Amino acid sequence: MPSVGDALKEIALHSADIAAEYFRNSRLKSWTKDGGSIVTEADQKVQEYVVDELRRRFPDAGIIGEESYSFAPDDFEQHPDKDWFAVDPIDGTTSFAHGLPGWCISIGMIRNGKAHAGVVHSPPWKEMYLADGDSGQATFNGEVLPRLTDPGVIDRSTAIVCDSKLLQMLTSDYPGKIRSYGSTALHFCLAARGVIDFAQSNRVHVWDIAAAAAIGGAVGMDFTYLSGKPVEFTTLLNAERVPEPIFAGHKDRVGDLSSLFALRK
C-alpha cells in the first residue's frame, strides 16, 4: 500500500502539470479576494484536482483549503482523531501571477493536532520537499535531509527569509540579512534544508504552514509564535489566521531570534 508521502508526491507532481498550463500565460485570469489577496484560475484548477484526489485516496479524512471552505466539515472539534489535509494549491500566488518563480504547491496532513506529513513542490525551482509521516524523515529532491545544526550566535551574517510585510507588522533589533521570495511554505523549507538560518511569517493560515511544518519537524525545526508559544495545528482548522507571527529554526536559537522582534504599536 502506498504511503501518505507517495500519494502526496504523485498529487503534487500532477498539480505542477496543471499549474504549468497557466504559469507565464498572458491569458491567465486573476482577481482580488476579500482581504486584498490575489487568486487566479490556476489556484482553483489545482485545488479542484487536489481535493478530488485526496477524497478518492483518503475518504475518511477532512480537507481544508485556501480557495474554498465548502468541503471542510465543521466537525473538527468533535473529531480530534480525524486526519486533516490542509491544501494551498499555489502558495505565492502574487509571484505566480507576475511570472516570478517564488511559488509552490503545498499539501500538509495534520494528525492528532500535529503536522504529520506534507509535500512542498516548487516547479520553477525544481525542488520538492517531502515528509511521509511514517519514517520520521524528510527529503529534498529524494535525498534525506539531515537534522538541523545550531547556526550559532545571531549576528550580521545570520540570514532569515520572511513575510514581505514583516517590517509593516514588526519592529526589530535583528542585525542580519533579510530575504523574501514570495512563498511562506518555501521560506520554511529553505530553513529546514539549512540553506537559510531562520524563517518567519506574519499571520498566515494553516494551509500556508502545515506541509512545511511536517518537513521542518522531521529535521528538528521548532515553529513558535512571537510570544514563544508553540504552534498547535488543531486550533487552526477553523480557517482563521494564526494569532501571532511565526518564527522557525533550530530549537536552541529560535527563541533568541523572536526576542529581537516586537509588534508595532
Structural class: alpha+beta
How many domains make up the 3D coordinates? 2
Helix proportion range: 25-40%
What is the strand tally?
A: 16
The CATH topology label of the largest domain is Fructose-1,6-Bisphosphatase, Chain A, domain 1
Query: Main β-sheet: number of strands, strand sense, barrel status?
Result: 7 strands, mixed
List unreliable stretches of 5+ residues.
none
Q: With helices defined by DSSP (H or I, 4 residues minimum), what is the helix count?
A: 7
Strand content: 25-35%
Name the overall outline. globular
Average the pLDDT over all residues and give the rounded result. 91
Q: What's the CATH first level of the largest domain?
A: Alpha Beta
> In sequence order, what are the helices and strands, one letter per element?
HEEHEEHEEEEEEHEEHEHEEHE
Radius of gyration over alpha carbons? Answer: 17 Å
CATH-defined architecture of the largest domain: 2-Layer Sandwich
Please state how the strands of the largest beta sheet are arranged side by side: 3-4-5-6-7-8-9
Distance between the termini: 53 Å
CATH superfamily of the largest domain: Fructose-1,6-Bisphosphatase, subunit A, domain 1
